[in-house]
Amino acid sequence: MTSPRFDANLTTERPTFVTHLDCAYTGERYEADTVHNLSRAGKPLLVRYDLDGVRRALTKEALAGRPQDLWRYRELLPVRRVEDIVSLGEAVTPLVPLPKLAAKLGASELLVKDEGRLPTGSFKARGLVMAVSMAKEFGITHMAMPTNGNAGAALAAYASRAGIRTTVFCPADTPEVNVSEIELQGATVYRVNGLIDDCGKIVGEGKAKVGWFDVSTLKEPYRIEGKKTMGLELAEQLGWELPDVIFYPTGGGTGLIGMWKAFAELEAIGFIGSKRPRMVAVQAAGCAPMVRAWEAGEEHAPRWEDAHTIASGIRVPQAVGDFLILRAVRESGGFAIAVEDAAIQAALDEAAREEGFLLCPEGAATYAAYKQALADGRVGRHERAVLFNCATGLKYPLPPVHRTLDRHQPIDWEGF
Ligand SMILES: *Cc1c(COP(=O)(O)O)cnc(C)c1O
């Protein structure tokens, strides 16, 4: 078989199968191919496909012959026409084993899905490449969002590429590199003296006053379709056999909800069986609304006051998709777990020093949670666990190094 052109997924018209959308809370049906935000009930909308049609159109063999990027799953994605795809090269991200750390813990297999390889350095690219491609399809001209940094950067990049104007609001203490990359990639970014949900309120008001399109987490239906590809990739990379347990750093929860949706779709098209991983929602102890709600057996998670953590990507006090996160965690037999900032920092240092893997703080939180869960017996040593490293560790402030060497002085060779 000859290999396909590198850009075959971006240039080949393929059939698409979206039938409608429905409200994730009430099940009310909404028509496809028109602009949506939340449902009338104020809840997220989920995109639905003719999965029998996909089953007939797509085989594992056909998939295996396509280039290794996100767009290889086109039949399970919402974009209708290739001309609307706004791509910056969304590579399939590798599963990297951490054998030394696993051996130290007496565990058989520990894998990290390294999302830091994506355009703009985080998995927010998956969601935003889809949302912006759909916005292009709909002719949207101005998008706005609240962000803790990475989502804003991905939105700015893709929207500029598509010729769409963007306005972005982030908390004042958002990592410096995020604020800079957002502006540099063509958005207008404002630091706001508040948290991400305070920024979200400004976007919501501006929607009415300025007419911009609100692309907040789960307030439009397509970011989740992009994030879903993490689940599709994971299944395919593991030979259509899902792992035993997935540790996901949970903010708005798009990725966790998206993967859970992906697994259901893969089963419906006959690519996997009914085995599911246990989904573990990892949060920081200083902002753990899902953990509190999970422990209390609640369906919704009220706002977490005074949220603080070094893992800025998961500093989300309140999530509109709370019930979907909690539902997926419960249906999967998983759990929600909080880790202290000190444990996150220690996990980050350990993985960097011993495995040469620079996790982002949110990714480090999943490793800290994994160790905690191994210790308390919620995860077994024989189980195959996948951690999500959601961004490159290079995006975050790194510790300074003060060691110097004066080349004009005698060198103490014994000292090295
Ligand atoms: C956004 C983000 C998260 C949280 O992802 P959700 O799917 O919104 O819960 C975790 N880590 C990083 C680095 C992020 O940017």
From TrEMBL:
GO terms, biological process: isoleucine biosynthetic process; L-serine catabolic process; L-threonine catabolic process; threonine biosynthetic process
Pathway assigned to this chain's UniProt record: Amino-acid biosynthesis; L-threonine biosynthesis; L-threonine from L-aspartate: step 5/5
Cofactor(s) the protein requires to work: pyridoxal 5'-phosphate
Domain Tryptophan synthase beta chain-like PALP stretches: 86-390
Cited InterPro entries: Ser/Thr_Dehydratase, Ser/Thr_deHydtase_PyrdxlP-BS, Thr_synthase-like, TrpB-like_PALP, TrpB-like_PALP_sf
Family: Belongs to the threonine synthase family.
Protein name: Threonine synthase
Organism: Azospirillum doebereinerae
